[in-house]
Design goal:
alpha/beta; 26% helix; globular; Calcineurin-like_PHP; UPF0046_metallophosphoest; Calcineurin-like phosphoesterase domain-containing protein; hydrolase activity
Length: 365
């Protein structure tokens, strides 16, 4: 039996849904041909370096940038020891601004999941449900952090607004003002859907059917940082999707310029999104075929019959191609400006190897 966190053999994708498997490369090609979903600022470009899932290890040569984001899973056992060691490494990096959220392996931050060595006399918070814990911050649970963050911004269901100076002011002592700086609002949240029966040592898991996201992200968010990916984007989709559909719906509401996540090691990379009919149609196709992932391999062999007699699926496939090609014409022929964003799976851990093998992702806003 395959884990939902491990990529399936390529034939499985084809047998589960030949229509979607054949459409996928064309969809990705059209996304790339449309050009960047959001052009960098011509006066104050901000270079964002994204990492995640380092699991106590240190990437040897993190690229330079204005902002460093770590999207969770700094540790393996989630102890204060491991987390502080990872934070100390982040301290040593030269980036002016650093933002960190936790992941399901960073169990110290969910008081229900702490290691025995990190528990205090207040108990284990065993009476707190997973649904409640997934949307409550460490401060809400009256538990002080023992991590020395220094100047690192740790986000747990919270936001921070950061200012970035212009190139000419970056090396001077001139105070930052709205006229000589650019600001970004960053929101971070750690929760993940429990697609497998995680043990109590895993933090911030919630039942897959539970909505831990709706109306939780401030609409003014420029950069969204989560540990789980949204469904249908860099989450081993199509069909075998490990992302959260409720998070996907919330990203449609907020439409951040950049959404950084990790958790699914095998889908590391970046993907443009355009918040248009091509994307809606693609996501509907992925959602409608997701239940097939629950079937046995023998049952997925009937995927071609289901696709053949699915007129709504064929209509959505046509929308993906038609609106995707219109997007290419709009951007490349008519010179229209796209107003989309980037989704980045920044997982540095290579599959389940225990080694870092996926390079940090760099996006310029």
């Amino acid at each position: 039996m395959y884990s939902p966190y491990h990529r399936r053999p390529l034939p499985d994708y084809f047998f589960a849904s030949p229509l979607v498997a054949l459409l996928y490369p064309f969809h990705q090609l059209l996304l790339r041909l449309r050009g960047p979903p959001r052009l960098p600022s011509t006066t104050q470009p901000i270079r964002v370096v994204c990492i995640s899932d380092t699991h106590t290890l240190e990437w040897p040569d993190v690229p330079d940038g204005d902002l460093l984001i770590h999207a969770g899973d700094l540790a393996n056992d989630g102890s204060v020891r491991e987390i502080q060691a990872a934070v100390d490494w982040l301290h040593s990096l030269p980036h002016k601004h650093k933002v960190v959220i936790c992941g399901n392996h960073d169990s110290y931050f969910d008081a229900r999941s702490r290691c025995d060595e990190d528990r205090d006399e207040n108990g284990s918070f065993a009476n707190v449900s997973s649904s409640t814990a997934s949307i409550r911050s460490l401060d809400d649970m009256n538990a002080a952090s023992r991590i020395d963050w220094g100047d690192i911004h740790y986000l747990q269901h919270s936001s921070v607004e950061l200012s970035f100076p212009t190139t000419s002011d970056a090396s001077s002592d001139t105070p930052l003002t709205s006229s000589n700086s650019r600001t970004l609002t960053i929101y971070g949240a750690p929760q993940i859907p429990a697609l497998v029966p995680f043990g109590p040592e895993h933090a911030f898991t919630y039942p897959p059917h539970h909505d831990a996201w709706s109306r939780t992200i401030p609409p003014e968010t420029d950069i969204l940082v989560t540990h789980t990916p949204p469904q249908a984007h860099l989450d081993m989709s199509p069909v075998y999707s490990a992302g959260c559909p409720n998070l996907l719906a919330e990203t449609w509401r907020v439409r951040p310029a950049l959404h950084v996540f990790g958790h699914i090691h095998e889908s590391a990379g970046s993907e443009p999104v355009f918040w248009d009919e091509a994307q809606r149609a693609w996501e509907r196709l992925c959602t409608s075929r997701r239940p097939r992932a629950q079937h046995s391999r023998l049952m997925t062999l009937f995927g071609f019959l289901r696709d053949l007699f699915d007129p709504s699926g064929w209509a959505d496939a046509a929308r993906v191609l038609m609106y995707g090609m219109l997007g290419v014409i709009w951007a490349q022929v008519w010179g229209g400006e796209a107003r989309g964003g980037w989704m980045v799976n920044a997982a540095c851990m290579y599959r389940a190897s225990g080694k870092l093998g996926n390079a940090p992702q760099v996006i310029t806003l």
